[in-house]
# Entry
Amino acid sequence: MPVNFNTQLPTGFPTPPNPTLNQYAFPNDLTTGNSGSGAKGSGNRNYYTQINFVSYTQGLNNTQAVVPGGGILLPIPKQLNDQTVMVWSPISLTETAAAVAGAAAGAVIGSVAGPVGGIAGALAGAFTGSQLAGGIVQGINTVSPITGNAVNPFLYMLFKQPDFKEFQFRWTLSPNTPEETNTLATIIKFFKFHMLPEISGLLMYYPSIALVKLFPDDKFTFKLRPCAITNVIVDYTAGGGPSFFRDTGAPTVVNLTVVMKEIQIWDKNSFNSIG
# Structure
């Protein structure tokens, strides 16, 4: 089905699929097919992934009204891994203190040598102070095998920042009808198109941003902040070898992998309000 680029989504986006939004769904009966008697008793498939593409804007979020560049509905990926990473790095107070002491010593040396050589004197002071600080620590460690003593580095962990979350979604998709074959091909092109920038002379305009939601209820899984698509991998021989429909020449089974990275970090405030 064609995409309606002018459809205004209501506040609270993403919303459950609506035929008026003209979204691409695979399989075609993803949200209407009979899946047996479910907890909600509707008989419809309630479990799927909704992905809408929007133009990049600063401050973009998953709950504002936006004009989509089109939408995709796919089954729940094979794996739903939510990894939260904080970036910490070790810091040595011994090295820091030595550097501070070296800088102080260098300042003294520079003040003495400064009148003699101006800038050269100041550089000499800084260089000499750095050498002095490093030399003390290195000197003790050099004789460490003899003395049996080593400099205590006084290591502590320095917090830097939250890392951007990354998600790797995988689907194995097998069309059952010519219509589904065309839908699958369009979905793959959609992903590839929206991950690309637009180049105009010296400028490159940012690629589209993906807004992703898991249904029926991400309360018990996880929510995603706006994502950039960083990698799309398509395996057209997912059936264990080349296999194509005789009538259309299309592959019978496709493995689709889409790697997304959030463009906004999480903190306590965003976790309480979104997560």
Observations:
- DSSP finds five helices and eleven strands in the chain.
